[in-house]
Structure formats: C-alpha cells, structure tokens
TrEMBL record:
Presence of the UniProt keyword Oxidoreductase in the record: yes
Name of the featured protein: Enoyl reductase (ER) domain-containing protein
Boundaries of every Enoyl reductase (ER) domain copy: 11-332
Listed SUPFAM superfamilies: GroES-like (SSF50129), NAD(P)-binding Rossmann-fold domains (SSF51735)
Annotated Pfam families: ADH_N (PF08240), ADH_zinc_N (PF00107)
Recorded coiled-coil stretches: none
Organism: Orbilia ellipsospora
GO MF terms held by the record: NADPH binding; oxidoreductase activity, acting on NAD(P)H
Domain of life from the UniProt record: Eukaryota
Keywords: NADP, Oxidoreductase
Keyword Ribonucleoprotein on entry: no
Length: 335
C-alpha cells in the first residue's frame, strides 16, 4: 500500500514523499481501516525531525488520527463495540495514519455520524480526546470554575473552549498571538476573553478580570518563555495546571516562585496521551462519545478545519502547520 515516508528517516517537510510499504496485519482486538482522511498534529512535525519519543508499539509511518471505512475486523474484537466491515469510523492510533490503511485497536475508534464529513471527523480524535483528558481527567474541572487555555486557536484549545463551556465553566480565557485569533476564539467559539501574549502580560490581565482571584484550571503547551511563572501568578487557590507540551522550551526564563505553589496549594501535572495504554485511551474515548458526540450531532460543537490538502501535498501541509498561522485543524485526503 501507499504511505507517507521520510527520506533518510528524519528531515524537513521537503523530505516527505509517497512511499510503498507492506499492508498492516491485524492483531487481537484490531480492525483494518481504509483511510479517507488524516489530521496533522504538532507531534508529527517533531517526529519527522527525530525529536519525538515515539512509543515502542508505533510504526514508523507518521500520523495518529484518521477517518475511514472498516475493511476487516479481527475475530477477537468484542461484539460490544458493534464494529463491522463497511462501517464509517474515525479514531486515534499510536501511529501509521499517513497511509492508505491502518490496523488500529477497536477500543480507539468511534462510529462516524452521517452528518460529519470524513475531513471533519479526521480532525476530532487527537484534539478532542486530549482536551477531554486535560480538562476532566487531569484538570478535574468542576461546574462554575474558571479556565485559562493557552494557544487558544490550536486544535486542542478550540475543543477545550467548547468542552469547558458545555461542562459549566463560569469563564474560559485564552491566550493567542494575534487579535484575529483572539476574536475568533471569543466571537466564534464563545471564549469569555482573550489576551495577546506578545503585547500583554496575561497573568496581570487574568487577575484584573477575576478581581485578583485567578483561574482554577490552566492548560499549558508552552511552559518556557515565562509562561509557567505567569501561570503561577494568575492561579487561584487549589488551581490545577496541566502541562501538555513544551513548545516554549524545556526551561523557564523567569525565576519560579515555589512558595506560591505551596501557599496557593497549586497542583502542576504533566500529561501525555500517545504513550497511554489502550484501556486508558478507551476511557477517554468513551467519555468523548458520551459528552461530545450528541453535540456534534446537533451542530452545537464546532469542528474547525483550517485547510484540506490532498495527501500528495503533504509537504505543503506540514509547511503550513510550521507557519503557526492556522486556526484549527489541517487535514489531508488520501486520494
């Protein structure tokens, strides 16, 4: 089958090409999906550059989220999941989604609603499951609490804005690098307010709008470049800070007031998704199905797709993601 390869195994976007590799074989509990579309993620760029710790069960082929049609079902797939040949599904995988076919655990696929396109469905798994994990399993968000989401126009934060509002958050604040992205988060997704991290001290702004009390849950992908120090300043008592990525570097630029962690009883927890067990990922899948799928069906949740490429244009797709100018997901069609 065809799949996206990387010349010399690692390299820039221009090293990506359409390769020929063996079709995957099924193991216990897996289904074979003929892929219609796949979504791009930051981890794909890092893995392409050789800078991402790929889990041992992941194939060399990039990509963790996809949509498509089931072509084969292993005999050991539970009848509870009710997956059969011909079903339209979308899901999350340890890797291998930049391809014509993928073998994936039935624990991590979801029936695609008829009203969703394959392009839309391919943009759900990684962003929405990660947002579910960050807000609820790690961040323990409760009704009436206030949330701060960094990189507000990213796929995960777009999902998290909507999930937090649906869960009864009293305020959802975002940071972004342009007024255009802030306006998008506020006017189109319903965020309470947004702050430009390039021109504003978001910690000061958060304290102003919360009467000095701060926020209860912070989802941070940056950490470096002063972010963690500011997170601690605008954290409320008993705040939970969830660290999902290190886009701003692994070291903080400012001195950290460790005393504030103790004084405010702040919990800081890092979390990943790709390295988790299928059972853990299934818990998240099930929660997403319960809380989000009805909203997708009734059009009250917005799946934001920045641009759809042919997978033959995967180089351009990666270059667009590297530009940091996007809002929402970049999708490739397997044509």
């Amino acid at each position: 089958m065809r799949a996206v390869g990387i010349k010399n195994d690692t390299g820039p976007a221009t090293s990506l090409f359409i390769d020929e590799i063996p079709e995957p074989t099924l193991s216990d509990g897996e289904v074979l999906v003929k892929i219609k579309a796949f979504g791009l993620n930051r981890m794909d760029l890092l893995q392409r550059d050789g800078k991402y710790p790929v889990p041992p069960q992941a194939p060399k082929t990039l990509g963790v989220e996809f949509s498509g049609t089931i072509e084969k079902v292993h005999s050991n797939v539970s009848s509870i999941d009710s997956f059969k040949v011909g079903d339209e599904v979308f899901g999350l995988a340890y890797g291998g989604a930049y391809a014509e076919k993928i073998a994936v655990s039935a624990k991590m696929i979801i029936h695609k609603p008829k009203k969703l396109s394959f392009e839309e469905a391919a943009g759900i798994p990684e962003a929405w499951i990660t947002a579910t994990q960050a807000l609820f399993l790690v961040g323990c968000l409760k009704k009436g609490e206030k949330v701060l989401l960094h990189a507000g126009a990213s796929g995960v934060s777009i999902a998290a804005i909507q999930l937090a509002k649906n869960a009864g958050a009293s305020a959802v604040y975002v940071t972004a690098g342009s007024q255009e992205k802030i306006d998008f988060c506020v006017n189109e997704l319903g965020a309470t307010a947004g702050f430009n991290y390039k021109t504003q001290d978001f910690a000061e702004e958060i304290l102003k709008v919360t009467d000095g009390k701060g926020v209860d849950v912070i989802v941070d992908y940056i950490v470096g470049q002063g972010y963690l120090e500011k997170d601690l300043r605008c954290a409320a008592f008993d705040c939970r800070i969830v660290i999902l990525a290190l886009m701003g570097g692994i070291k903080t630029e400012e001195r950290i007031d460790v005393g504030s962690i103790l004084r405010k009883r702040i919990r800081i927890e890092g979390s990943t998704l790709r390295s988790r067990t299928p059972e853990y990922q299934q818990l998240l899948r099930d929660r997403l199905v319960q809380e989000a799928m009805p909203r997708f069906e009734e059009d009250s949740f917005n799946i934001v797709v920045e641009k759809v490429f042919s997978w033959k244009e995967v180089v351009e797709a990666h270059q667009l993601m590297e530009s940091n100018q996007t809002k929402g997901k970049i999708i490739c069609l397997v044509d």
